Amino acid sequence: MKRFIGFIKKEFYHIFRDRRSLFILFGMPIAQIMLFGFAITNEINNVDIAILDHSKDATTEAIINKISNSKYFSVKQFLDQESDIEAVFKKGKVKAVLNFENDFSKNLIKDHNAKIQILTDATDPNTANSISNYINAILSQYQKELNKDSNVAYQVIPQSRMVYNPELKSVYMFVPGVMTVILMLVSAMMTSISITREKELGTMEILLVSPLKPIQVIIGKVFPYIFLSIINAIVIVLLSIFIFKMPIQGSLVLLALESVLFIITALALGILISTVSATQQTAMMISLMGLMLPVILLSGFIFPISSMPLPLQVISNIIPAKWFNIIIKAIMLKGVGIQYIWKETLILIGMSLFFIAVSVKKYKIRLE
Amino acid sequence: MNTNKVIQVEGLTKMFGDFAAVNAITFDVEKGEIFGFLGANGAGKTTAMKMLIGISNPTSGKANVAGFDVFKNAEAIKKSIGYMSQKFALYDDLTVKENISFFGGIYGLSRKRIKKKSEILIEELGLEDVANKLVGSLPLGWKQKLSFSVSLLHDPKIVFLDEPTGGVDPITRRQFWEMIYKAAHQGTTVFVTTHYMDEAEYCDRVSIMVNGKIEALDTPKKLKEQFKVDHMNDVFLKLARG
Amino acid sequence: MKTILYIIQKEFKQIFRNKGMLPIIFVMPILQLVILSNAATFEVKNIKFGYIDNDNTSTSRALIEKFTASTYFNVLSDFNSEVEASSAMLKGDIDVVLDIPQNFNHNLQKEKYNNLGITINAIDGAAAGVENVYVTQIIKRFNKDLKVDLLQVSDQQIQTVTIESIPLFWFNKTLNYKTYMVPGILVLLVTMITLFLSGMNIVREKEIGTLEQINVTPIKKSQFIIGKLFPFWIIGLGLLTIGLTLARLIFNVPMLGSLGLMYLYTSIYILVILGIGLFISNFTDTQQQAMFISWFFVVIFILMSGLFTPIESMPYWAQKVTEFNPVKHFVEVMRMIMLKGSNLNDIGPQLLKTALYAFIMNGLAVWSYKKTN
Q: Does B3 reside within a domain?
């Protein structure tokens, strides 16, 4: 045991002596969470649009005012003819064009019906769809105002209550997501690199012939990184509370325990990667190329998993980040206790054990 | 300038902050000489050598290597010297032949010349059987001999060897020194650092560095007389202990 | 020139000899392109829906029927109480709950209107907004039916006006997000591979000790850098070619613009990334440091590229920051050429910016590589 503690101490010295790496390890996640917390949002905001108004009457003016007064859109330019539309889209200047038909007001009075085309640049279909929905919402609001005197008979009025995030802030979605991505990648990357580094430098052999058991060697190597990752997690949580005003509805202790569990899962994955790679280069490429996009895309951090095609929903189950993302949002925003997230917790425990078991087996095979 | 002197150093100094790693050293090396550059670990040998081969900027002093000034013309020196570092520095993931042709190529040798040189070299080292094997799979002794030969590939005027025999067995060391003698015999000046004192006896002249300064410089024989001892080892110990 | 060839030859040999790396360089990106392009949709569907029917009349059932019929909602459960429903939502089993009050039908007949409680899990604010729109639309349709069913002769017919909006989605009529994501993810993969490989390259030689051996040779700085860059440049373009072919064959992504223009832009773009990679490599002492720094930039490049979240939504300062993100320009250009058929004139500004960027980064890379310390 004494030897083991001595070994862990040596690992700490290694890490703390490399000031530059230390700075990178702590500075970068903070910089990232600050940047992303402020900058990343899928809300529609200040989208540049153009107007092609064939009527130029009081009603169309009222509608244009409504739209440009909303925080969602800013009217960038007025077009004169249909043929201008393609040009503005191709230059990428505006994302949508509103096309009012001729005699808009007149039609509204005479036929009780007038038409607007909402043209969107759907090369980005996700945004195009949202833009279209938002404009529609503004239009139906306006329509309601027009109809307010003619009380419609028999109607059900939906009273929607947005729970857990009443203001629909996207930061509630992204801060936990970024935290998941950072913890996952940093932890897996650090362990896989530090272990393969010893292999490459040949110092692993020295450790393995020492009286320390292989499992002790691995734990000793990983231990300092558990510590570092926990500090990282604490800093991120503090930032989300004090800078991004995220609520922590649930228990902080539970949040801490679950974070430690997730860090262990990620580190175990790092160990597994190190057993299959011979050089640092390979380890890094696997943990970066192999994990980065799957973690970002399949963890539910940006894109809702339930909307994905079925095979991808199945694949997403093997991404540890997905489960942690569910857990962390449930604790922070829903304020639930372990009785609601025990399933996800067990899955993470199972994954960690699996990664460790496979790594131990691989190490044994090599040693024999 | 005396044309027989291929290395001329005067008051050469390298500071790291306040610490003088190399403190105003002065010496000359003659053409065709085997010059032993001795010192304990951390005495400043490697730092001094790195200034001479143009990969470390000196702080002050004067130095001229193969006719070029290390301050103004470091890049020009590189054409006329060969270098073998302490750490094995050929590519483990290239074969013996590929390493030879790569280094020949960046020294600007013609294809024909590279081909001929590598044939001779492989034969001399007895590496025919492993010529197409990755260098990483060779034993250390072979690697060292190969990297010495590669440093001579472009027929440099001077070859710098930084502890070339570290970690190899006595037989290989013996063979290695035979290679050094052969190179010197063909007119190449050899500048070698070592901390094996028996190897110091093989050198024409040796200098001994202590704490960044050259404390002794002469032939091994004269040094032993001067310090009244039988072995270079004792000379070294006397100096190192002050 | 000959010297450069020797370096290129050596680099290629080393890359292709590393059996562990080959699948990572070529297979992994392709797999990710094919699989992950399907993931990136903001479309909201299969909404996990549950209801509490306290009324249990034909009217309330008719309302529930409307939700069952909708393709957006996945009607999963009916709850007996609000407590039950909120517990299911806490567990994450349900995202939208419809709460039909007692006497729903009765009140509707009597008062002509009735309130209806909808609870939506809003952690994903954007999705919640869309879910709310869907719910409102369904209820609107329900109201229309009500009018027909319940309208009595005594009721006066009142004419209301409608503004009919016709959405038209240009360049991608069916809102197929894959058309958009495949080029985008391809950009990310090309960027990641070239940045990681070049970022690790020189620092790796530094760590093994071979860089010192190179530094004592008379090779010129620029020769060395060009020789090192070239293989990765080829790998990047190779990856682009494979990716574009797959985009066409598997995802049927159109290629409206000129392929030549695509390659022209990409060849300059990869130079930017390689320049950044070598610059990082020169400034670090170990591969580990180089990797962390590359990782830091890649995450920023990816999340601030406008690929996953729209740039227009970012605060003004962040939009300015994205100007320095090469990936942002590449995503933009790729989309413009492939999906809009933009020509050299249209992408001119981006091309110029990228070329300038490439010039600066490679200048910095050559400058920061010091043969003498």
A: no
Could you identify the residue written with the tokens 């942002």?
C328
Q: Is residue C159 part of a domain?
A: no
Chain B positions contacting chain C at CB under 8 Å are 53-57, 74-76, 78-79, 81, 83, 85, 87-94, 98, 101-103, 105-108, 134
C85 in contact with A, Cβ within 8 Å: no
Residue C373 falls within a domain, yes or no?
A: no
CB B226 within 8 A of CB B212: no
Q: Which residues of B touch C215 (CB under 8 A)?
A: 55
Q: Give domain status of residue B202, yes or no.
A: yes
Beta-bridged to residue B35, according to DSSP, are: B191, B205
pLDDT band at C153 (very low <50, low <70, confident <90, very high): very low
Of C163, C123, C132, C186, nearest in space to C339 by CA: C186
A47-143 maps to which CATH number? 3.40.1710.10
Paired tokens of A240: 């989300």
Find the helix or strand (DSSP H, E) in which A156 lies.
Answer: strand A155-163
Give me the number of domains chain B comprises. Answer: 1
- CB-CB: which of C127, C165, C315 is closest to A116? C165
| H-helix or E-strand spanning residue C7 | helix C2-17
pTM exceeds 0.80: yes
Report whether A158 contacts A74 (CB < 8 A): no
**ipTM for this model:** 0.84
B153 min Cα distance to partner chain C (Å): 12
CB-based contact, C90 to chain A, within 8 Å: yes
State which residues form the domain around C287: 2-40+175-368
**Residue numbers of C between 154 and 213 with CB closer than 8 Å to B:** 208-210, 212-213
Binary contact (C299, A32; C-beta < 8 A): yes
CB contact under 8 A, C44 and A304: yes
Structural domain includes residue C53: yes
Identity of the residue numbered A168: L
Last residue of a domain, one of C105, C135, C150: C150
B14 located within any domain: no
180-219 in chain A: CB under 8 A from chain C: 181, 185, 189, 193-194, 197
Give B132 or A45, the one with higher predicted confidence: B132
Q: Give how far C3 is from chain B: nearest CA, Å.
A: 5
Cβ atoms A87, A79 nearer than 8 A: no
* Alpha-carbon distance C289 to nearest alpha carbon in chain B (angstroms): 22
Residues C215 and C128 both lie in one domain: no
At residue A155, the pLDDT reads 67
Chain C contacts of A166, Cβ < 8 Å? 122
Look at residue C170 and tell me whether its pLDDT is greater than 90. no
Residues C124 and C208 in one domain: no
Instruction: Check if C7 contacts A (Cβ < 8 Å).
Output: no
Residue C170: inside a domain: no
Which of C14, C219, C373 is closest, CB to CB, to B56?
C373
pLDDT at B110 over 70: yes
Taking CA atoms, B11 is separated from A69, B5, B62, C304, in Å, by: 77, 17, 6, 55
Give the whole-angstrom CA distance, residue B65 versus residue B160: 11
Identify whether residues C349 and C266 lie together within a single domain. Answer: yes
Quickly count: other Cβ atoms within 10 Å of residue C231's Cβ: 22
Q: How far apart are CA C15 and CA C20, in angstroms?
A: 10
